[in-house]
Design goal:
Helix content: 40-55%
Domain Phospholipid/glycerol acyltransferase: 29-150
Largest sheet: 7 strands, mixed
Number of strands: 9
Strand order of the largest sheet: 1-8-7-2-5-3-4
Shape: elongated
Protein name: Lysophospholipid acyltransferase family protein
Radius of gyration: 23 Å
Biased composition (Basic and acidic residues): 222-234, 241-254
Region (Disordered): 222-254
Organism: Streptomyces hesseae
Structural class: alpha/beta
C-alpha cells in the first residue's frame, strides 16, 4: 500500500526533495521534522525508499464503520503507529516507548518535536521529552527535516487538497552520542532539542517563535474569541443606537 499511496502522491503533487543522500541505506535513524500540515506524514514517506514510522492517534485506527476501516487501512499503509494519547504523561511515555522499539528494529522513526501542527506557518519551540529521550536512549542519529509549503496543499480545516507542489529538505545527521546516559538531565534534553530545532529552522527558513505551539494555539483561540465578543458588543451597541435614533425620529413634535 505504501508504494501505491506514495506513487500516487508523487504523481499528483510532484514534491521536490533535497538531501535524500542524508538518509542512511540501513540502520536506525530519527527523522525530526517541522509540522505544517496533516499531509506531512504522507509526503515524507512518499519520497523515501525506506519505511518510516510515525506516531498517530489510536482513534484513527479504531473508528467504526466503513470510513473508519478505510482510514485505519490508510494509516497502516503509510507507516503510522497507533498510540493511546489519553492523558498527557501517558501519551508521552507511550510515544517514547514506541519510538525506541522502532529504532531497536533498525528502522526509521519520524517525530514532530513541536508536538502539534504550527497554527500560523512559523516554527515553534520543540518539546524536549520525546525526541531527546528517544535519541539518547537509542544512540540513533537525528536527521532534521523541513517540510515546505505543505500547509498550502492542505490548509487546516480543509478536506480537499490544493494542487500545489510542496518540498522537503533533509539535513545532515546529528550525533548526540556525547550525551549518552544523560537522558535524565532536563538541561541536556533541552539542549539536544534546541540544537535540532535550530537545524530545522535553517532548512525551512521559517520564523522561529520561542514558545510552544500548543500555547500559541490557545493564545490565537483566545484572541479570536475576544474579537468575536467585541464585534458582537459593537453590533449590539450599533443596533441600540439605531433604535434610539428611530424612536427619536418617530416622536411627534409638540
Amino acid at each position: 500500500m505504501k508504494l501505491s499511496i506514495g506513487g500516487s502522491l508523487k504523481l499528483a503533487f510532484r514534491p521536490w526533495v533535497e538531501g535524500l543522500e542524508n538518509i542512511p541505506a540501513e540502520g536506525p535513524a530519527i527523522l525530526a521534522s517541522n509540522h505544517l500540515s496533516f499531509s506531512d506524514s504522507f509526503f515524507l514517506p512518499a519520497v523515501l525508499d525506506r519505511k518510516i514510522t510515525f506516531i498517530a492517534k489510536q482513534e484513527y485506527f479504531t473508528s467504526p464503520g466503513v470510513k473508519g476501516k478505510l482510514t485505519a487501512a490508510f494509516f497502516k499503509g503509510v507507516g503510522q503507529l497507533p498510540v493511546d494519547r489519553s492523558g498527557a504523561r501517558g501519551a508521552g511515555e507511550a510515544a517514547i516507548k514506541s519510538g525506541i522499539e522502532v529504532l531497536e528494529r533498525g528502522e526509521l522513526f519520524g517525530i514532530y518535536p513541536e508536538g502539534t501542527r504550527s497554527p500560523d506557518g512559523r516554527l515553534y519551540r520543540g518539546k524536549p521529552g520525546g525526541l531527546a529521550r528517544v535519541a539518547l536512549a537509542t544512540g540513533a542519529p537525528v536527521i532534521p527535516v523541513a517540510m515546505i509549503d505543505t500547509e498550502k496543499v492542505q490548509p487546516p480545516g480543509k478536506v480537499l487538497p490544493k494542487m500545489i507542489r510542496p518540498g522537503i529538505r533533509i539535513g545532515k545527521p546529528l550525533d548526540f552520542s556525547r550525551y549518552h546516559g544523560m537522558d535524565g538531565d532536563r538541561f541536556i534534553l533541552r539542549s539536544v532539542t534546541d540544537e535540532v530545532m535550530y537545524e530545522i529552522m535553517k532548512l525551512s527558513g521559517q520564523e522561529y517563535v520561542d514558545i510552544y505551539a500548543t500555547a500559541a494555539k490557545r493564545q490565537i483561540a483566545e484572541e479570536a474569541k475576544q474579537k468575536a465578543e467585541e464585534e458582537k458588543a459593537a453590533k449590539a451597541a450599533g443596533l441600540e443606537k439605531a433604535g434610539k435614533t428611530e424612536k427619536a425620529e418617530e416622536k411627534p413634535e409638540a
